[in-house]
Amino acid sequence: MSAPAFDPLLISVAAPLAVALAIALGLPKRWAVKLAYAGFAVPALMALGVWWQFGSAAKETHGYAFLSRYSTGLDQFGIGLKLGLNGISLPLFVLAGLVGFAAGLYAIQSKAERMKTYLLLLLAMHAGLMGTFASVDVFFFYFFHEMALIPTFIMVGIWGGRDRTYAAMMMTIYLTLGATLSLVGLIAIYAKSGASSFDLMVLRDTLASRPLGEVTQEHIFGLLLFGFGILVSLWPFHSWAPLGYGAAPSSAAMLHAGVLKKFGLYGLLQIALPLLPLGAAHWSHTLAVVAAVGNVLAIGLVTMAQRDLKQMVGYSSVMHMGYAFLGIAAGSVLGAGGVVMLMVAHGLSVALLFLLSTSIYHRTRTFDMEKMGGLAQHAPVLAGLFVAATFASAGLPGFANFWGELPIFVALWNFSHVLTVTALTGTVISAIYGLRAAARVFFGPQSTAFAQVAAANPPSDIGWGEKLPALVLIATLLFVGIWPKSFSAAINRALTNTPAAMVASR
Amino acid sequence: MTPLNTALFVLIAPLASAALIMLFLGRRGAAASAVSVVTAALVACGALSLAFGGGRFTAAWEWLRFGSFAISIGFKFDDLAALMLSVVGVIGLCVHVYSLGYMSDDAGKARYFGGLSIFMFSMIGIVLADNLFMMFIFWDLVGFSSYFLINHWRERKSASDAAKKAFIVNRVGDFGFLLGIILCYRANGTVNLSALGADHAVYSRLIPLLLFCGAVGKSAQLPLQVWLPDAMEGPTPVSALIHAATMVAAGIYMLCRINVLMVPEAQSIITWVGTLTALYAALCAVTQRDIKKVLAYSTLSQLGYMVAAFGMGSVGAAMFHLTTHAFFKALLFLGAGSVILGCHHEQDIFRMGGLRTRMPVTFWTFTVAVAAIVGLPGLAGFFSKDAILVLALESNRAVFAVLAFTAILTAFYMLRLWKIVFLGAPHGESAQHAHDGGISLTAPLVLLAALSAVGGYWRAYPRAFEGVFSQIPEAQGATHAIVLAASIIVLVIGAGTALAFYATDGRDALEGKSRSVFGFLVALRTSFDTAYDYYVAEIQQRAAMVFNFIDVVGLAGVVVRGLAGATEFVGFGARALHTGRLNNYVYWFLGGVAVLWAFAAGVL
């Protein structure tokens, strides 16, 4: 397979990287900012383009479209930069493109100190994200993840809010551990499969004809589950998330919580489940119990106890990841389909919530919800967007999140009745903390603390710099919410065509 | 237009109106209200032409599919849907027109009318839905519209709290509803309303009861009734449309939709929930001073009648009462709105009085509505309530007794309200200068008064609703005489006592004369809220704090320390991380890559 003349996937990795490189080489700030727009916009346009063409115009091989392969000089190890999208990676690629664009726009207007370095790191992160979901080669899948992860630590450490050193350390320890475990698991698959290739398509074919032994599968799946699980804040390895996101600068939080965190779930769905069906079956009960009781119920309650807006959003994100794990544990096409929908929906809505939380902070000068109140009178548009994001995150139909949660619940019933009921309590819990936050921040009378802040600096409603990225996110949430087939058709095709693997894990 | 296209138009037009308002007319109240009202008029025309045009159809399109699981968006337009759609269309138009006058000076007018349009869209979606998943989707959306509109005056803490409470309490009901839908899907393999049957054995009792949970939330039955009285914080036209005539009745409509799933055990529970709600709410209504809250408890009580009627097996009686109730309760609320507006936002009935002469249109239309709800022979409420009493007498004497007693209370609290608000002399400056509103306020009152007067003669209706009204139970011979006598006696006792007992002196006679009864009724009313408040503050929030403590101190503390120790143990520089030199990580990563290469090349 050769490289096509016009490769949207390669361009969406290369464009932000090239801009980052140009900035690193000393581009003046004026130009750096202008070029950064292009660096963030090109992947988004490419993502929309491939979304439009996928399934109809694009040619497919084994369910993958837009395939290309570039030699890296590591061919003898079975490593090559092979790019392509199937029905599972397409939604995430689009997610990465859009959230990256929104985060980029928000960063450019944020007036952060040392703007050039900030943009450089964010662009590198963005390139890594696009590459992660475009990679068919497992080596590059992991490589691009690291490329996005490292800038996250640095951004938290330098531009973070309070406790940034501690938060950066905690994130680094946890995420490094998670990444290491999953790396070991991936290498084990490579070594044990005997395929001498990191190419996922080759690995799939090899393992479909010669599956690994049951015990081997269980061990490797365990490594991947805990490795990826830590990266996705599986309870009880979630402590890094609220702390890290609480400290992270908004654009980094948007990209990490919105997109990068999905790496683990994506790895489980795209790699672990099809390649190690017996291992998945072995672990599914443990996973489901931990996710339902730990992530959904316990963290749901913890979320209700938060006073700090950003921490609350961070915890809510941990909670919603519980649903995703439940869908993976349920193991059917329905459950997995719900997980992909939820990944996209959650990514968009949590990015939106982090963005809006920062916009709120600029007006209230605090994240403490007790010191807010009545902001809707000053900023009605901000209030409307926040309420919409809250309802999206609580799974209101009309937003994409609903199409993630509902299939997961339905799939879960066949897996475990008790856990379905447990998971459903999450719908009530999300409504409680979400609406409580909306009420505390925006409605009712002003708190005395906020009245003082508002008297000194009369808050304005959000301007276009903040509104545009928010609108990109909310429009996508609504679009997918109203027309779920725009993703579900591709997802369904990819999942039902996966040979027997999903069925075996049921 | 084919009926299908009309149905699509009726569903989509309000959504388009809402989108237009939210996107472009956010600051143009006049334009927004015009768009919304014109849409409502078109929807009403479309709804009536669909209902009376005779076309009955089903249609479905696939919305989402994963494997064998598919959700479709579809219409099931039968006589039941036609009736409900007509009610929604007509009341919706009345309330839209009324809102033109009522909300004319409101700063958030555009937002308000956008909310009304969103509501119409969601409600019509429930009516037309051909399967339970789709119904649930729109079910949640009416919940959102309700939240949005209760929260209209959002600088008020009470409004914000009430909106939050309404949504969360409904989510509690929906918890059961969604579980019921999932079970139904798993047991039947479908949730299409036309394909459902009651022949699945395992969960046959559980499914109808779980689905009923949805109705308990949305139609505010015991024990989830607490949100509805608080929801009166919303603008009064919203209370009329959403919290009296249509949305809260959606629970009954949904039950009628899934009638085939009912089994006797479930039905008897449903009957008793409805009956007790009817009684409980009527008792609560007696001590209210706020005109809207009297009506809110009255709504709860009447919804209880409908639920009980459904429980006793009659879709016809339940839907008949739903229809007449929609007319007279919407009228009562709009009349109350007119009074509130006339008295400059005074809602305490003991500061009103003497409005009979000052607000003649409001007075006469309100009087028709009161006569209808208390069951004055010849008016709408009389026929529909009679149908329920006949049903009760034939199926369950105890229920009959409770419902008949509730009817006494209904007459009692309604006449109390009527006398204190309209008769005697005004008790307050604002009531002194009250006057009727303009045409947009009075026209809907007159139309609804006409419907409340004649809406009970269902035999005179066109044959469009035959499929529903043919199921209305009719009394023969002795039963007929007993029920007729009972309802007249009940009316005379209730109305007579109220008229004799309450004076128009601006004081609550019950509070003055019998403190113990009054105190008991107040305690009864507040008992649920007290219990729930205790649960939320003392149990739920404490649990949250405990879990938070464990999370922060336990997990973060111990696990992080453990991890740090572990990393030190394997000789990786945890201390380097403490110093913040994050690039150490990069070296480690590169080391990993080197190991990987070595591994791949077969060195290791």
Q: SSE layout and pairings?
A:
The complex is a heterodimer of chains A (506) and B (604).
Chain A: H1 8-24, H2 29-53, E1 60-61, E2 64-70, E3 81-85, H3 89-108, H4 115-134, H5 138-159, H6 164-193, H7 200-209, H8 214-231, H9 240-247, H10 250-260, H11 262-275, H12 277-304, H13 309-330, H14 333-364, H15 380-393, H16 400-415, H17 417-442, H18 448-456, H19 464-482, H20 485-497, H21 501-505
Antiparallel strand pairs in A: 1-2, 2-3
Chain B: H1 3-24, H2 29-53, E1 57-66, E2 69-77, H3 79-102, H4 109-128, H5 132-150, H6 157-188, H7 206-218, H8 227-230, H9 236-245, H10 250-257, H11 264-285, H12 291-311, H13 315-342, H14 355-358, H15 360-374, H16 380-395, H17 397-422, H18 429-432, H19 439-454, H20 466-469, H21 477-501, H22 509-513, H23 515-569, H24 574-578, H25 583-601
Antiparallel strand pairs in B: 1-2
Helix pairs in contact in B: 1-2, 1-4, 2-3, 2-4, 3-4, 3-9, 3-13, 3-19, 4-5, 5-6, 6-7, 7-10, 9-13, 11-12, 11-17, 11-23, 12-13, 12-16, 12-17, 13-15, 13-16, 13-19, 15-17, 15-19, 16-17, 16-21, 17-21
